[in-house]
Fold each of these.
Amino acid sequence: MAPRDSAEPLPPLFPQARVWPGKMVAMGALAGFWVLSLITYGYLSWGQDLEEEGSLRAQVEERPEAGTAVTSQPHLIFILADDQGFRDVGYHGSEIKTPTLDKLAAEGVKLENYYVQPICTPSRSQFITGKYQIHTGLQHSIIRPTQPNCLPLDNATLPQKLKEVGYSTHMVGKWHLGFYRKDCMPTKRGFDTFFGSLLGSGDYYTHYKCDSPGVCGYDLYENDNAAWDYDNGIYSTQMYTQRVQQILASHDPTKPLFLYVAYQAVHSPLQAPGRYFEHYRSIININRRRYAAMLSCLDEAIHNVTLALKRYGFYNNSIIIYSSDNGGQPTAGGSNWPLRGSKGTYWEGGIRAVGFVHSPLLKNKGTVCKELVHITDWYPTLISLAEGQIDEDIQLDGYDIWETISEGLRSPRVDILHNIDPIYTKAKNGSWAAGYGIWNTAIQSAIRVQHWKLLTGNPGYSDWVPPQAFSNLGPNRWHNERITLSTGKSIWLFNITADPYERVDLSSRYPGIVKKLLRRLSQFNKTAVPVRYPPKDPRSNPRLNGGVWGPWYKEESKKKKTNKTKAKKMQKKSKARTRKQRAARSSTKCHPRVTTG
């Protein structure tokens, strides 16, 4: 898509037809058998090893029945992990075992210049709309459970666009895009079905969440109703995988499918079934050990999802995209080493994510993509793959990057607005003067233009947290990596290509580059919409809603109030009209003349 504004060019960073196979599987009676097994036994192949894949393929002949129509539109499977750190995958050197992720990434395309947002709601909103958060009003923080706020209803979502071209759309997992009105719910934003949680976190077994003392409720939904029938202590990662398997077992693989799987893992609270701790007894740090167990369970879940795609005839015409929603949180076991910073910050550790694409439809498999890719890019990319249309009057911030990923072509993206947050805590020493009169550096903002990255204001916790921070070596060596931000500093410039770990600030050495990036920030800011961050509403308390987190804004009561207000206004107008008429009538009457003598 075309950028909203042009800007001064910077030197290029790297001087440097889609085909879908016509073979799919018709699963008919066999699919019915597996649906029955799912109902009977709960889920399939839990804990099976990767080696079983071959035998499972042998069980189901991957040949379509005679006369079966095969869709030219690929099945789109988007898997979003929660709070997975940049280092926390085997192929990035982690001690945590992730054989499924390693295998899928190795056979696909690893995205090694891939960016998301530093916290949950912004990443999810940008994925589902293709727009930066400054263009949806969600540029500050997350949507809180008690806020009357949600993804703006005037934004056409990805599932809505896919439904226009015949896709069945299903969501499993964490929503976190607001729910105060029924119109904000996933099933009203384009999903045929929804099974998961509305909030940002909660207990993995009981599915309860307390936002504050006395403000607690159940948070597990099936479509638009609380899923009380599933209040049986099943770990959410496993429960969500069961639902994915059920969807695949019951869907016709000759019809296009969009499946958005947003796992709760590995977000806090740190909980995992006991058997996943077996390989991590040597990890001294208890949070890291629990986190490792959670990630191992997640890896196994994705293995089972992949097996189900193959078993039910979807795999050969599927595109699987895997992404974390933001960086890891070291205090909750995550690791972004060797990147700087953590979740909630605009340092690379908060926004550079684990990501890859796995698909038989890729032209160049087993490769690494180092081109610039952002989470907003999935919106136009998936709509294009689905043979859909994007309205010309909709200004997106994402780009179609399929040829970049599949064929190794240059990315159409040259910049990323990481964010501009006008209400975040201002940097004490920021000023217009520090921003050369172009930008107030007290404001939290971050932008990437080709290989340059600029940060202003208060970018957040800035440590590098090395692996030994999670070992029994203690904090002393970790502290050797810690720094204190320079007093009075409110602007930083890094060459991310040469210095991906943000060790050397170049802002004083290249003031010309700083000014160019500040101008680009200013141009973006002119297109920003007002921030949506309302105060909490006491009516959101689950105690007022049957013990469940859910929509509390009553449309009917609003209409009644509106009708009453209109009635009152009409009554006032009627009375005023009557008074005027009386006055007019009285003025036309004859009055006796009074004479005085």
Note: The longest helix spans residues 555-588.
Amino acid sequence: MEGVVHTGTDASAFKECFSLTWKNPYVLRLAFSAGIGGLLFGYDTGVISGALLYIRDDFKSVDRQTVLQESIVSMAVAGAIIGAAIGGWMNDRFGRRTAILIADFLFFIGAVVMASAPNPSLLIVGRVFVGLGVGMASMTSPLYISEASPAKIRGALVSTNGFLITGGQFLSYLINLAFTNAPGTWRWMLGVAGLPALLQFILMLLLPESPRWLFRKGREEEAKVILRKIYSADDVEKEIQDLKESVEAEIREEGSAKINMMKLLKTKTVRRGLIAGVGLQVFQQFVGINTVMYYSPTIVQLAGFASNKTALLLSLVTAGLNALGSIVSIYFIDRTGRKKLLLISLFGVAISLGLLAGVFHETTSHSPMVSRIQTSHFSNYTCPDYSSATNPGAWDCMKCLKASSPDCGFCASPTDKLLPGACLLSNDTVKDLCHDESRLWYTRGCPSKYGWLALVGLALYIIFFSPGMGTAPWIVNSEIYPLRFRGVCGGIAATANWISNLIVAQSFLSLTEAIGTSWTFLIFGVISVVGLLFVIVYVPETKGLPIEEIEKMLETRSLHFRFWEKSQKPLHSAIVELI
């Protein structure tokens, strides 16, 4: 299976990219059409975070069962793991264009099923379909762009796929906000995803197959016609010859030795490369990024913001910062270096998670008390557990929200949300009664004067994560493996990323329920510190090094510990031998 190419590039490459695409719009059309796959990937990641707020309101079983909420989120990730695996085979067998068309079809079907789902079970089925499409598109779109782009601007065009992913996440929050007052709220949010899938399907029908794939299948004349549209007359013959030689060498390599897991593990450079590459992908997920992307509005509500609309609006900030961070990374990745950027990123992430843990500890341990007077104001709707409590004077908002037979909610004081309020049954009737008296209604978090600090923590988390841990693991994985093993090793690392994503998405809400939000973020913080130590010990600095020197570094177990210094010496004197 050929792997996804995630290429590091710099600002000068983008200037040349704009220049060349202006002269040859056909190249931009190829890149944009395939890049919609990245937009779909990002949109689906972001849209479910807002839609989940309204799905819980419509389906009471989802609101009551944390595992159902996690399943609605994570089944798309499970589908993506299968989609990425099938997508690799389909890419090689049927071509990149065909794989993208099938991904669009699956995504469109999933969007329709989700938008019309009469129950949570069918909604989950739709999420699986969407996940299959996302998994296929996530690996095929950058591969198609890479193989159908001029070599001079390939890095810049592939990097636009990353922009479209974060842009899709930002767009999803805007769409979520647009439909907050529309009938059917979450159905529109999820259903709109079918439109870009349909657009890409139409655009890809009008575009050719990847010229590299055509060469591999012996369809050289078709490939040459496409290459003549992509390259100038001065460059095209050389590119055709280079591509032909590259494909022939690739086929010879495949024929000379079958790649299997034992061979990978026995090859010292590959084994050490895999430890670094797979480790980075696992830590990327286990420091909690997709808890922020999948559950951002829920986290905002846990911090004490009651309104769905307010939670979505504030979550828009994190999506915007994430998109901005992917742009910032382009400037720093080749100036600062991969390792230094990873360490700065993980240090900042650990500090941010520590801040979040502290904030949520304060919000849960200092929530407003429950007032018997305020509660008796809604005498017919008092929470049964509160009525039968032996010491109701000790009840606060958090204890009220933990009542489960039946579920209860907290109606804040009308004068100040931080003053004692009422503990009442949780249903739509009571919520409306509470709102009618200009009170705030809480079911997922309690009023807190520290809520704004949680937003600061989330913003800092994204600011530190996005430019470093958000992009550098993909770039390191595109550089660290020997060329002949790069496809299969990249696939292993990407699969590790998806599986880690699934574990985090499926466990976050259960963890917050079992041990509390503060302890959950503290666990992520500890993992960040472990990740920082892992990067220091196992991840080499690959900035500016040719493949041969990276292999030599891994072969001799040499790592450049003084990552903060610019290496001006030859490789053998610039690295420190591990003992």
Note: Residues 367-442 form one domain.
